[in-house]
Amino acid sequence: MRQPATSRSIRRILGPFVVGPVVAVIAIVGAHVSPSVSSAPRFDGSPHLAPGGGAATARWQAPAVREDRRHAAPGAPAAPQAGVSEEDGVLPEGVTAFDEQHAGVARLDPALLAALRDAATAAAADGVEIDVNSGWRSAAYQDRLLREAVSTYGTAANAARWVATPATSPHVSGHAVDIGPAGATAWLAAHGASWGLCRIYRNEPWHFELRPTAIDRGCPRLYADPTRDPRMTP
Ligand SMILES: [Zn+2]
Known about the structure:
The protein is of the alpha+beta class. It has helices at residues 5-14, 20-33, 35-38, 54-72, 103-106, 110-125, 139-153, 156-159, 182-191, 214-217, and strands at residues 131-134, 177-180, 197-199, 207-210.
């Protein structure tokens, strides 16, 4: 899901303290009065948006509500992960780089965490909240994710395109963060190099690592996916 440009610009004007429902209401009203708003790329691949159309408006509204809920309960319990807990790095929704009560944040590499906090502060001035969906992970948590990926993608080779092993994952060493929502990943992709924060994989727009040389030279070329990353070779 992509945050609409209209919502971003409204949040930029009104500042970071405006909560989602206000934006959602304005966006919905905008959908009725402005065809240009309705034609904004609200969804990836949705051909159904029509100005003022009842059904289309319902589809328009639903994702915004989900997005709001995501931000409404930063202390909400983490999604259940059988066998692993917050001590393994499982994070509840709405966690930011400043929420160091969570192991998934506190056990990140200090330089990465400092860069992410600086970037998050600048993003907030643009009305963008950067959430940490996943940061440091224990080997047990990474192993669980890998086994789930093998189950999902059918083979270890296919799973390797998305999830590294406990021995190779930069999340286990505390050197990677997965951020969200989509507006935050777009913001950090555009501005993160100023703090050495870089995307690494083309297939994972949410995954960022610290590359200090990026501050002067820009981020390195993306790998297509983790299987192209030499670090992932056992
Ligand atoms: Zn990642």
